[in-house]
Amino acid sequence: MDTAVRRNIVVSAVNIRKGGTLTVLRDCLQYLSGRPDLHVTALVHSRALCDFPGIDYIEIPWSAESWLKRLKCEYISMYGISRRLPEADLWLSLHDTTPRVKAKRRAVYCHTSFPFMRPTLQDWRMDRKIVFFSLFTRYAYRWNVRKNRYLIVQQDWMRQGLSRMLGFPEEKIIVAPPSFRAPDFESAPAKPPVFLYVGTPDCHKNFETLFRAARLLEEKTGKGAFKVLVTIKGDENRYAKWLYSNWCGTESIDFRGFLSREKLAGAYGEATCLVFPSRAETWGLPISEFLSCGKPMILADLPYAHGTAAGAASAAFFPVMDAERLASLMQEVITGSLASFGPVPVQEIRPPYAAGWKELFDILC
To answer: Which of 119, 208, 244, 248, by CA, is between 20 and 30 Å from 174?
Structure first.
C-alpha cells in the first residue's frame, strides 16, 4: 500500500454488539489502529465495545433499536455523515449491507449465512425473527451491492453462493478466513464417551436432531453408555425451554449451560467427539477449536462444515436433519470402529484471498 499519502478509511459497524461479528470488528480496528499512514473513522454502536487508540469514533446506538432505524441509519444518516467527513478513500461496511455513502471505494464484509438457510415450521414457532432475518437478508444483500468494489466472505462456498445469488463477479469477492485463538486444553477423554456440542440456544443450531439421536441411541445401548454435553441450560428462551421440556428426561443429555473459556477448554479435553449439527453457519468456530486435537468429529453435511473442517484427521458428515444417521455415527464412536470417519481434504482457495488484515487492506486499497 502506498504510504506517501495518508488515506481516509471509514469502517461502519453500527449494529455489531456481540459474538463473532464483534470479534471481527475488534480485530479490524486493532489492526488499523497500528497504521499511522491511515486516518480511520469508525461508526459503531458503542466505543466501549472496541476502543483502540488512533481511531476517531462516531457512536450511533439508536440504529440497533429496530430494522427501520437501521435502514434509516444506513441509507439516510450515513450519507450525511459521509458528506461531512473528508472523502473516504475506502468505506468498509462490516455488517452485510451496502450503505448509501459518498466514497471513492466501497466494500462490504458479508457475515451472515441466513440467506442460504431454508426456514422450517419449527423456526416460525420458536423464533420468527430468524425467519424474517433470513428472508430480509436475501434482499438486503442486493441493495446497492454493485456500488462495491469488493465483497468479503469467510469461505469459498459463500463466495460462490453470493456470486450466484447477486450476480456479483467471483473475482471481486475476497475470501478472508477469520483469525481465532484456540483455547489450550489437554485431551483426556472421559468414560463413558462424551459427545460435545458447543452452541447458543438459537433454533437454527438444530439441537433437536442431536437430542433425537441421543434418545434413539440410548434405547439401543441402555442408560449410562454415553453422555451428550450441550452448552445450553434450558431456560434461556422459548426454544431452549422447548428443548428442555421434551428431552430433560433423556438421561444421557447434560444441559450444562454457558461455559467460560476455561471451562470450555476442559469440556474440549473431556470430549470423545465433537458434534456440530447447525443448519446455518458462516464458519463454525468450535470445529476450528476442536480440530487440532485430532479426535473425531460428526458434522452437518453442509458446505460450511466441509470448509471449516478441512485438514481434520477424523470426521464424518450426516444429512443435517437425519437423527438416525447421526445416532449410527455416534454408535461408531462408542464402539471405536469409526468405519465412516476419515480425513477431510484441504480445499484450494482461488484468489482473491487474504490470510490476514494486512493482505485484506492491501487488496481493498
So the answer is: 119
**For residue 107, what are the β-bridge partners?**
92, 150
The residue-averaged pLDDT of 112-118 equals 78
H helix and E strand count, the chain: 13, 13
Which amino acid is it at 17?
R
Cα 128 to chain centroid distance, Å, stands at 20
> What mean pLDDT comes out for the span 193-220?
95
Q: Which residue, chain included where needed, has cell 433470513?
A: 134
* Three cell numbers written together for 84: 461531512
Per-residue pLDDT tens for 298-333? 999 999 999 999 999 999 999 999 999 999 999 999
pLDDT at 4: 59
Residue 13, H or E segment? strand 7-13
Regarding the domain with residue range 7-180+351-364, which homologous superfamily does it belong to in the CATH classification? Glycogen Phosphorylase B; (3.40.50.2000)
CATH label, 194-335, candidates 3.40.50.2000, 3.40.50.300, 3.10.20.520, 3.30.390.10 = 3.40.50.2000
- Rg of the chain over all Cα atoms, to the nearest angstrom: 22
Q: The C-alpha cell of 181 is what?
A: 485463538
Asked, as a colleague might, if the bond just before 352 is cis with ω within 30 of 0, I would say yes
CA 309 to the chain's CA centroid: 14
83 by DSSP, 3-state: which?
Answer: helix
